[in-house]
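Q: I'm writing up a methods section and want to include an example of the input and output format. Could you take the sequence below and give the corresponding predicted structure tokens, formatted cleanly so I can copy it straight into the document?
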Amino acid sequence: MPYLPNSNFLFIHIPKNGGKYVEDRLFMSDNPGNNENQTNRSFLSNVAKYILNRYSKKSKLFLRGMIDYSLVGQHLTLSEICILNLIDNLHSKNIICICRNPYSRIISLFCHHVKPEKWNITELEHFCKYWPYHKPTSIKHNILAHKRTQYAFIDNYFLDNQKVDIYKLEDLDIDLIANKYKLHRIPETAIIPKNKLNPLNNRSYSENCKKQNLSLTPIAVKYVRDYYGIDFERFQYFTTYDQ
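A: Here is the clean output for your methods example:
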């Protein structure tokens, strides 16, 4: 839950939408601009795993979800933040999120959750058909977060008319540089220059995924359009698939 109290700035981190890059640029990460950040960012998750290993397998299924919420706090929706009362006066905060074309996002999700040896068109089509609908038997919050639609992260059932500024991953740097810092009163000195950061989407699996030249089949396009229809509509993406 990336939050800057001094500027009342809250970033809703939707999985696979370039969130780490935004956190780095706005000094919301432990070691922005450093490869070590990925390890440090996962420190609490590692602590959680250590705790889990001390419990029975059955207990893990439920304990992991509790730890995800209370200790790690990654990929929370606005509704979760509100109902858990994690931030006071949420309605007064400057809130942004990054959205992404559902077609490119499903490929990123595929590469994140599927082993590289299975990166092929057939497996991708199977993933698009079944993975979003398949609910794990445990309450592993991180997995559930990856299955949610993007709109579910900002659809707040508890605060009417909650304003959220939405920026597209495809135009991320242009939007951030042009509007974000002044609008949200983030000091210019608190911005890390882009040339001191690792490139957007620089993680190895993302690069390897691109090299596979994966694309969606017509039937996979239909699956994505059906499941993520609200994302196409609310974030104004064309449903026509352009590779």
